[in-house]
From TrEMBL:
Region of interest (Disordered), residue spans: 738-763
InterPro entries named among the record's database cross-references: Aldolase_TIM (IPR013785), FAD-bd (IPR002938), FAD/NAD-bd_sf (IPR036188), OxRdtase_FMN_N (IPR001155), YqjM-like (IPR044152)
Alphabetical list of CDD domains matching this protein: OYE_YqiM_FMN
Organism encoding this protein: Streptomyces yaanensis
Protein name: Bifunctional salicylyl-CoA 5-hydroxylase/oxidoreductase
Domain NADH:flavin oxidoreductase/NADH oxidase N-terminal span(s) in chain numbering: 391-724
Pfam families noted in UniProt: FAD_binding_3 (PF01494), Oxidored_FMN (PF00724)
Length: 763
């Protein structure tokens, strides 16, 4: 026994699922001298699922690591390419997806056989000794004991797990026939919407998962039914999908999915693997895949590092980003199905596209490669002219027609002098107006000197500032015809009187401060200055400041006006229960918290030209307990729309310093999606949308109407024109300025590929 400072010779594995068994087999194969023991409390043939889906990527890893297991799996696989989506009696099929599945019981048998042939000791129907005991007597303890891991819970202070239960109930069942595709079927019942996920795992068998929200499950009476009655009823609800065939169970029970995220995966010589460390929703089919890939990575790291501590650290470092990405995709998929009722009114083909791209793993471009015929059909129904990507279709807001769906998001530049935008702003906004986006937004333009965030913030509270903005608008009109320019008006509230971003974001000025005001006297964070609670008279004054700024914006010629009610600034501070503690008519219920922002909006709308649109930016969640909820965000959007808002610009967070955002690609778009489908109000999606493929996917799926991008436009002012060139598009949705037309094709580069051999001679 070498202990924790060398490669482990005695290894204990807790849990006989695919991940634990595969890790055991690999460890024994690489070093036959190892003593490897697996404890599994169930019998060898006990399993609580039916089919297992593995990706080609995972299979490739298995093939390289253990050809014997790979060949055994290969002989068992059922393969298919199609996905069928059935919605309101219409079935749409998308091909080219490439699935491989086999029975979970057969997978375990193969791994049992491999472990035995290598000399791994398998102890079935046996509870593993307490982890502390194992860690004393073995060099390495692998906890592969599943989502309810006793090991993880025993050392919760070390692993620091968070476990979140979700809103749907589901049950694993099976049918004694093979679907000819991965099938999603939607049932709209008197109790609510239910869905079936089905796929073949053998020539004569399919996995069938039935899922629905908790309230639907209870309304339908499933909480009171015995298993046999549940199975019979599910078969009746989805009789069309099943062809009238029955369903069967294998210790099946209704359950709710639990997302497990562990802050640490190892503790001393204990290490978590698979569902014990992390879970990903079954709708992207990743549980077994992740566990097997964990096993491959863990064993590789143990081979590559002499010290156990280094090996376990390397394992976690390698796997954590992959798992985090998968969990983000799984959450997006899970939440899509939780909110399935929102999408029922979509046309069936668009609904199918929306479902296929729900996790953001499959995108418009990716789906076009898999099934061009299906994707083109969705585009035609959406209204895309031939050869026109969705992002280059026009969109109308009141009297303004935007030539494409791309918006340059507001970005504070902190480069004004006394609130006056100068040459920097002319070049910054002018360059982006020339870059092809349909709408270019200013930074948050402040309605008073006291409403600035920093001394470098632009304003619209003096005639000199208005003239400077008129100059910028004039440049866009003359040099970028067809590009709209919008202004965002706001007041910093409690987040004002701070340093320039690059000198210390949100840090108070050391001198030259101005007084702060807010809905309630709550500082933004420790060390921030204390704002004064606004009196009724001051509310009237600020409303008039917004109105005057809107009037100046109209005279300056802006095409669109946006009211900033997000990110913890003054009006956002009224909306959030975390920052509005008032006891008067402007605090308390959501209706009261909305009162002042709506008064400001109404006053601005009264002086803003009728034919020009107004939008409102909101933070749809505060990313903090007790803050604005997704349901409240819908009501906020609905209220502004009732007062005349033409679209809602849906952002999140930055309301309280203690927020905990769930960052990731397009991470804010589900909030826009929810508002759009719940209210019917057009929305602008923002937040880590970085590729034209993402824009096309979001627009075509109906999750948003416009996409606002910030950092991509800092990286490339001509982002939209380059997106058109890369997609081979030339048309009215992306017009190159005359002086730039010679650059509308991607420049040639030197050849980097070597000529392929013309002839291969045998030896």
């Amino acid at each position: 026994m070498r202990g924790t400072e060398g490669r482990p010779l005695r290894v204990a594995v807790i849990g006989g699922g695919p991940g634990g068994l595969y890790a055991a087999a690999l460890l024994k194969r690489l070093d036959p001298a190892r003593e490897v023991t697996v404890w599994e409390r169930n019998a060898p043939d006990d399993t609580f699922g039916f089919g297992v889906v593995l990706s080609d990527e995972t299979l490739g890893g298995i093939e390289h690591a253990d050809p014997v297991v790979y060949e055994a799996l290969k002989a068992e696989f059922v393969r298919w390419d199609d996905i069928d989506i059935v919605h309101r009696g219409e079935r749409h099929t998308s091909g080219g997806h490439g699935f491989a599945a086999l029975g979970r019981r057969r997978l375990l048998e193969i791994l049992h056989e491999r472990c035995r042939s290598l000399g791994v000791e398998l102890r079935f129907r046996t509870e593993a000794p307490y982890p502390a005991r194992l860690s004393e007597t073995y060099d390495l303890v692998i906890a592969a004991d599943g989502v309810h891991s006793a090991t993880r819970e025993a050392y919760a202070e070390a692993f620091r797990p968070t476990v979140e239960e979700h809103r749907c109930r589901y049950i694993w069942l099976a049918a004694d026939f093979a679907f000819d595709a991965f099938r999603f079927e939607i049932a709209e019942t008197e109790h609510g919407v239910m869905q079936l996920h089905g796929y073949p795992y053998a020539a004569d068998a399919s996995t069938v998962i039935v899922e629905m929200r908790e309230e639907v499950w209870r309304a339908a009476g499933f909480d009171e039914l015995e298993t046999a009655e549940t199975i019979e009823r599910c078969a009746k609800i989805f009789a069309d999908a099943l062809g009238g065939r029955p369903l069967r169970s294998n210790n099946s029970t209704w359950t709710t999915f639990r997302t497990v995220v562990s802050e640490h995966w190892s503790h001393g010589n204990l290490v978590l693997l698979g569902d014990a460390a992390h879970t990903a929703h079954f709708s992207i089919g990743s549980g077994t895949k992740l566990a097997v890939e964990d096993a491959l990575a863990l064993v590789a790291c143990l081979e590559e590092h002499t010290a156990l501590r280094d090996a376990l650290g390397a394992y976690e470092e390698e796997r954590r980003p992959v798992v985090a990405s998968t969990q983000r995709a799984a959450r997006a998929s899970l939440e899509w199905f939780e909110n399935l009722a929102l999408y029922l009114r979509q046309p069936a083909r668009q609904f199918a596209f929306n479902l296929l791209t729900r996790s953001r793993r499959v995108t418009h471009d990716n789906l076009r490669l898999r099934d061009a015929h299906f994707t083109e059909a969705v585009e035609r129904e959406f209204g895309c002219p031939p050869g026109t990507p969705p992002m280059f279709t026009p969109f109308r807001l009141r009297g303004l027609t935007l030539r494409n769906r791309v918006v340059v998001s507001p970005m504070d530049m902190y480069s004004a002098v006394d609130g006056v935008p100068g040459d920097f702003h002319l070049v910054h906004l002018g360059a982006r107006a020339l870059g092809g986006a349909a709408l270019v937004m200013t930074e948050m333009v402040c309605v008073s000197a006291e409403g600035r965030i920093t001394p470098g913030c632009a304003g619209l509270y003096t005639g000199r500032q208005a003239e400077a903005w008129r100059r910028i608008v004039g440049f866009v009109r003359a040099q970028a015809p067809g590009t709209a320019i919008g202004v965002q008006l706001g007041h910093s509230g409690r987040k004002g009187s701070t340093k320039l971003m690059w000198e210390g974001m949100d840090e108070p000025l050391e001198e030259g401060n101005w007084p702060l005001v807010a809905a309630s006297p709550i500082p933004y964070k420790p060390g921030s200055r204390l704002p004064r609670e606004l009196s009724r008279a001051q509310l009237t004054d600020i409303r008039e400041q917004f109105t005057s700024a809107a009037w100046r914006a109209a005279r300056a010629g802006f095409d669109l006006l946006e009211l900033h009610c997000a990110h913890g600034y003054l009006l956002s501070g009224f909306l959030s229960p975390l920052t509005n503690h008032r006891t008067d008519a402007y605090g308390g219920t959501l209706a009261k918290r909305l009162r002042f922002p709506l008064e400001v909006f109404d006053a601005m709308r009264s002086v803003w030209p009728e034919e020009r649109p107004m939008t409102v930016r909101i933070s749809a969640t505060d990313w903090a307990e007790g803050g604005t909820t997704a349901e409240e965000a819908v009501e906020i959007a609905r209220a502004f729309a009732a007062h005349g808002a033409d679209a809602i610009d849906v952002s999140t967070g930055q309301v309280v310093a203690e927020e905990r955002p769930a960052y990731g690609r397009s991470y804010q778009t589900p909030y826009a999606d929810r508002i759009r489908h719940a209210t019917g109000v057009p929305v602008i999606a923002v937040g880590a949308i970085s590729s034209w493929d993402d824009v096309n996917s979001l627009i075509l799926a109906g999750r948003t109407d416009l996409c606002a991008l910030a950092r991509p436009h800092l990286y490339d002012p001509h982002w939209t024109l380059h997106a058109a060139a890369e997609q081979g598009y030339s048309g009215p949705g992306a017009v190159w300025p005359a002086p730039y037309r010679a650059g509308s094709r991607r420049p040639q580069t030197g050849r980097t590929d070597a000529p392929k051999p013309r002839l291969t001679l045998g030896s």
